[in-house]
């Protein structure tokens, strides 16, 4: 079945403060969407609300994946339904090795008795780590513990590659990456492009989009998508910044909490 | 408040018992003296807990246990623990007495002694007499006094000079008769430059009637000796466990404690290294899981007398349901113990709002030229971590157990015996109800 992901009128708040004020977005398998915007406009909140972070409360709207109600699912159910969020600040978990964690994640998608064999898992893991130019030793390190910023990001991409989700949300995956790491991460994403997989790339900067070409670009301000376009929109934002968008829409302060 | 200790046996009864066992006169006298002490001494003082309120009077009386002709006859409750041990060195104590003893012939040839302590007091009288109750002493409090009066069965392990034993010796202590006194005493002497690993398990049967385990472990690591002592206590809710473990460590000797506190009943344990010799070292790893309404009081101690002595103490405890744990670490460095280094860490992870944990790191330093450090933390499962794991499709239950095992793993993974690691892992799983 072709992947179809729909966000309609999504509103969410944290500690009583509304951050998302009605997000509408439609994505199909094979498409890459980029959400751009300055800091404080609600981009990461969107990512967290989609995944179901307990601190964010969705107050209105709907999210469906292939017709299924995502908002009705617990975090782990959303993941098993095909949603994946590469986080901006992944947790560090002492005592849980990267490989044990990944194997648990893969087996969570399989029936009891159908668990992935250790050999097959290790082969896959080693191959993907090689693609991402990761030191094989990272498989046996505790999850994200003592990883540098760039290593954590690569580890997020590694998880995506192992889990093979149908909707991938990348939350500022490019922040803190040097150009070489950025290229590796981008090639990891490109390797995963497929007709039945959609990507939602959240970023401030155009630079990742030089390596991963988006089909659609959306600008977020004040908790809404205020402008959408093709890849040329990202290029213009990179060249001219966000001021022209604000001017065009009559926005003084683009951060959440300010009204146009 | 003075609490009168109710003696489970009178002097005449104790004398008769000792004579029946044909114990040497000095031992009979020791027992009687200890019984007198038990009547006059106070209970031990536990940090932030009142042992007076515990159910610790259930000593029963000494009963004969039938010998096991072979491992095929062991009770079901311990079958798993002793399987594949036909050829290894193994001792089993059931209630008041040792019922199975086997020492691997190659160790016997090297002069290793591995026998029940009641036999050892007769066959190796001088060795036993010179060490028994010199580490854990009868006059410390009423619990140690009662132990010295009542101890039964027990283990005596002696490793001669320069003998290195590579395969662990094993013992199992089973209480499955609540009317029988259960007070094993473990005495280990590792002579100069020897090395040995000893592993034991404390298990209870199906009985639900209250039993008090009053046990003591005394270890003597002579110069240059290496002793590794691993113990897993997994007794049921009906057993109150009082365990004193102590090692006296001579010059350049090393002691390693690995303790799995997996009981389901109230437990007081005190694991104590006395670093007497210069260059002596001690390493303690305590893993604990508490559940139900258990009251738990775990203390690890290191007392440095020798110069350049080093101690490391780590306790990790997971408390679920309504369990309460007080975890004490006491590092004491005496004047003159220059260049010593004492480090300790206590961490408690609480899984429910009603669980309680308290970590008390204490450093007592009487010498300037030393290093010492401590770290302690008490906390709940981190919800961000749960979210992160769940965001990869892992259920909340599995996520929690990954985090709990992760919390214990840095210590469990350091346990040098793979079989023990696995065993401990299985007991932890059982205790966590998975």
Describe this structure in words.
The complex is a heterodimer of chains A (260) and B (434). Chain A is an alpha/beta fold and 260 residues long. In chain A, 33% of the residues lie in helices and 28% in strands. Chain A is built from 8 helices and 12 strands. In chain A, the strands form 3 sheets. Chain A has a 6-stranded mixed β-sheet, sandwiched between helices. Chain A has a 4-stranded antiparallel β-sheet with strand order 2-1-4-5. In chain A, strands 7-8 form a two-stranded antiparallel ribbon. In chain A, α5 packs parallel to α6. The longest helix of chain A has 15 residues, at 149-163. The relative contact order of chain A is 0.19. The mean pLDDT of chain A is 93. In chain B, 23% of the residues lie in helices and 38% in strands. Chain B is built from 10 helices and 19 strands. In chain B, a hairpin with a 2-residue loop joins β1 and β2. Chain B has 434 residues and is of the alpha/beta class. In chain B, α1 packs antiparallel against α2 and α2 runs antiparallel to α7. The model of chain B has no long low-confidence stretch (mean pLDDT 94). Chain B is globular, with a radius of gyration of 21 Å.
